[in-house]
Amino acid sequence: MGTVEIGLLYGGATLVALFAGLPIAFALGAVAVVFMYFFMPAASLDTVTQNVYEEMASITMLTIPLFILKGAAIGRSRAGSDLYSALHVWMGRVPGGLGVANVFACALFAAMAGSSPATCSAIGSAGIPEMRRRGYSPGFAAGIIAAGGTLGILLPPSITLILYAVAAEQSLGRLFLAGIGPGVLMVVLFAIYAVARYRQEKAAATAAYAQGGTWSELLRTDTFTARERFAAIPRVLPFVILLIGVMFALYGGIATPSETAGLGAVLALVMVAGIYRIWRPAQVGPILMSTLRESTMLMMIIGMSLLYSYVMSYLHISQGAAEWIVGMQLSKWVLLAAILALVVVLGFFLPPVSIILMTAPVILPPLKAAGFDLIWFGIIMSIVMEMGLIHPPVGLNIFVIKNIAPDIPLRDVVMGVLPFVGLMLVSILALCLVPGLATWLPTAVYAG
């Protein structure tokens, strides 16, 4: 049987295993082991554990459970609610300030927690009820939170970027810096849309009230005194200290990425213990258990994805596919569009972790041969994968929102996030037209 036939059979078996309902880690691992049995030397099965261990024996991998611990500690506290409340006070004068405050709160919380669903849950549990109470349409309120949670994939510490750094053999520090510019761009775009949508809904509410309709809370204006604004600063200050501390340690040459992850976890635990009094064993236990569960799940997926990729490489499936793509002699932008379309389709069914580790051996060599900067592409790919969290049919963030606000119809949630999907596409287009949005900062920092 030739490489092409084996490759098609490998892909088909993977789809069957995934659609059969097997957990992703077990589906990928089972397919890999079966193909090792039939198409590789018999001794290969004896080295499964060794192969997985060797593939995962990267110091960069150590950052993942530590960043998860950091996010779990923050997520278990009232940090998300406090952050949202403080930003609401400062954004009160901005039209649609409540929506903008939610966008900023999602961005800051995501930068600390590193998890999109956790951000949706932490900020959405306070933000969605408040926005609805203030007259925001349910779909709009849900869309802001669901899309705001996706900002965590670009802002350090992003687990997705960590895995891409491992798979693409790129500098993690450069990737973290490259994500800041596009991340800020998306925050600005989301905030602008929040203001525009608020104005639209307020105009409709004003017209309805003028024609004898009911009063809408959108017509009420919040006013906060200077004292209230400054009183809110202490609620934001710990987050700022945590972010600055981690970034300074990483880019000041004080600590490696793994050491920085450890520092972030310790600072987060100290913060929740000192500010929110979460220090008793009964309170810390759930944080550690949550970290253990999520880390174990993620590491299982990573390990089996790496084994899956190892088998692909051994059977020359990935090399053959890469050579076939190069041999098509597509223009570089058509090649990029085709690869991103593939990532979008995979995002319907797979999490970013699996997409990166499964596709990297196939798509990165042709992209590198076409002259694309792999740091830049990592940011583009991350945005595309994060779109999968807010668009059907899977859309994990959509279901997190449904859990927070079960009375909002699923159709309203989906319609609420679609404009943000469009804004993410605008961000991708901007990065294609102006690559410096992603490449300038890492080049400037590391050139010095």
Write the layout of secondary structure elements.
Elements: H1 3-19, H2 24-39, H3 48-56, H4 63-75, H5 79-90, H6 97-113, H7 116-133, H8 138-149, H9 159-168, H10 172-210, H11 226-251, H12 257-276, H13 281-314, H14 317-327, H15 332-347, H16 352-369, H17 374-387, H18 396-404, H19 410-433, H20 436-447
Q: Could you name the key traits of this structure?
A:
448 residues, transport, TRAP_DctM, transmembrane transporter activity, TRAP transporter large permease protein, 20 helices, 0% strand, mainly alpha
What can you see in these coordinates?
The chain has 448 residues and is an all-alpha fold. It has one domain. 77% of the residues lie in helices and 0% in strands. The chain has helices at residues 3-19, 24-39, 48-56, 63-75, 79-90, 97-113, 116-133, 138-149, 159-168, 172-210, 226-251, 257-276, 281-314, 317-327, 332-347, 352-369, 374-387, 396-404, 410-433, 436-447. α1 packs antiparallel against α2 (24-39), α7 packs across α18 and α10 crosses α20. The radius of gyration is 23 Å and the shape is globular. This is TRAP transporter large permease protein. Part of the tripartite ATP-independent periplasmic (TRAP) transport system. InterPro entries: DctM, TRAP_DctM. Belongs to the TRAP transporter large permease family.
Q: Unreliable runs, pLDDT <50, ≥5 residues?
A: none
Number of helices: 20
Shape: globular
The end-to-end distance, rounded to whole angstroms, is 53 Å
The total tally of domains equals: 1
- Radius of gyration of CA atoms, rounded to a whole number: 23 Å
Number of strands: 0
Helix content: over 70%
What oligomerization state is this entry in? single chain
β-strand percent reads under 5%
* Helix/strand order: HHHHHHHHHHHHHHHHHHHH
Mean pLDDT over all positions: 83
Instruction: Output the structural class.
Output: mainly alpha
